[in-house]
Predict the structure.
Amino acid sequence: MPGTTTLERITELRDRIDYHNHRYYVLDDPEVSDAQYDDLMRELRRIEAEHPELVTPDSPTQRVGAEPLEGFTQAEHPVPLLSLGNAFDEEEFLAWHARVSGLLEESQFDMVCELKLDGLAVALTYEDGLLTRGATRGNGVVGEDVTSNMRTVRSIPLRVPAAAPSRFEVRGEVIFPKSAFEAFNEQRIADGLPPYAHPRNTAAGSVRQLDPRMTAERPLDIFVYTLGYAEPMEFDTHWQSIEALSRLGFKINPHSSLVRTPDEALDYCRTWVEGWEDLDYGCDGVVVKVNRFDYQRHLGVVGREPRWAIAYKFPATQATTQLRKIKVNVGRTGSINPYAVLEPVNINGVTVRQATLHNADYIATKDLRIGDWVVVERAGEVIPQVVSSVVSKRTGNERPFKMPEACPSCVEPVVRAEGEAAHICVNAACPAQLVRLLEHFVSKGAMDIEGLGIKQTTVLLEKGLIRQVADLYTLKKEDLLELERFGETSVANLLSAIEASKERPFSRVLVAVGIQHVGGEVAELLARHFPNIDALMNASQEDLEAIQSIGPKIAEAVVAYFANESNRAVIDKLREVGVTMESEQAEETVEQVLDGLRFVVTGRLERFSRSEITGRIKDLGGAVSGSVSKKTDYLVAGEDAGSKLADAEKLDVPVITEDGFLDLVASRSGES
Ligand SMILES: [Zn+2]
């Protein structure tokens, strides 16, 4: 007999899961992240596995999703839409593979790896060549009839060729592409409407719009990932059926892959754990399916989960926590940047305490208030962001944020130029700005001077030893030794690091001085086009815009930087002390020998950094894109090339090495 505490815990878990299910599936307004939800579900599954006698038919583990909403006709699924078991790490995936191997009595069997898209699952029925029904997944057995809304999704075929089975159903994920979502939100803001928080929730809300005309205005998209059923059924494997669906005009995700071994499957998962962030849609994992249908039938379904498939989940990128305070700091260009001080929360193994809030508009349009529960996202190396507030958790004690009227560093008034998002401290002598600029100046991608942290630079500023960045080069040993935090050895090291930084290439100097919009890539372009600082300083807006991939915004920022007297003083002093102010080899005139060619670059290169080769291709008139398509002319592949290489081979796109690239440039230079 299990103790009452076990029973209490089970009841509590079920209540909480039901509550969050309702918020997520019915209201499209989740309060917790998927990871937090998964944790609850896993605990419940674990306890129920230990105490099977406590499993009841109404337990959340016994159903797939949510109840249909009122207002739509119910749509029964002839073949239920199953849910998937999860693997949260490689070990769990290998355990699944071993289990399947045992049941099949086969050590190797083909599997199909597919990205698990973060959208809304739908089932589309076709009869005699026509789309007759579109239904949401609902609880897997009964969904909602959203046929008229599905008809508005451009990537869903309304009719299919005669070669199609007379009656069949496909299943897919409706998504709101990230790029379209951003543009859609910009338009909403321009129209004075609040922006939407999350593409997935907006896609779900759009599919369930009662007015199909509203749905039609949303740029929804779909990837079809499986054949639900077909009469007659003519396929032996999942891969075959997917290829057939592609031929029938369905949109199939181009990154799906047929693999043979568990290692290959895990390679696929590893590639996409970070790789998905470059895609135009959200993914939260990889689905691995046993390919052969006879194997699938043999393996069968346990409860609601097929034994022949598993979802390999990516580490979570979002969590919910409390926004305790909103503080501001001063950027190196004087912008006053609000940021969130959070109740510390763990996201994917990292404790997040702060998140960016960008500017006052961002806070206002998202209606973020001090004391709110908020959804925080941390993806890759990007600074964590506050995505949205959880309005349903408000108690009434939350306070709106007000931008300070004075700079927190120099107490000068803060101004906001018309049409600009940022509030600015315009005081050129503002110490906070100089600290930030110094921090940037000495950073790795700039002058790369070790030994100068924020604490040291603050001391140097307070003592008046530094009034502008170039003063670094006239620091004296005896002055430094008198300061706290500066010992004999560290001073010697610092001075030699400063001396060595004079040799940094011109492009790095251009990064270091902190011209707005001029990062590594732009700086390299400038250094290639202008032989020295004087040529650059004398360049007009038009001269700059004439350079491929330099737009008006960058050109304007460069001209504005050099027009400023105190900036010119910095440049003069840097030149005086011997910092590099000339390009190594300025290319005279660059022939556009790659004009009209589209490149994709992947893998680790030996001769070029990624930004160097990208800059080179663009300089020569070529274009660079992030993913391989039929329009790609060449894939330049280095070591450890991953899925892009596979994509190129699939699409017959020529693959060349770095040397091949140089040969290509040389041969085309010769022929013109
Ligand atoms: Zn200030």
Remarks:
- The CA atoms of residues 248 and 518 lie 48 Å apart.
- The chain has 24 helices and 26 strands.
- The domain at 506-577 is CATH 1.10.150.20 (DNA polymerase; domain 1).
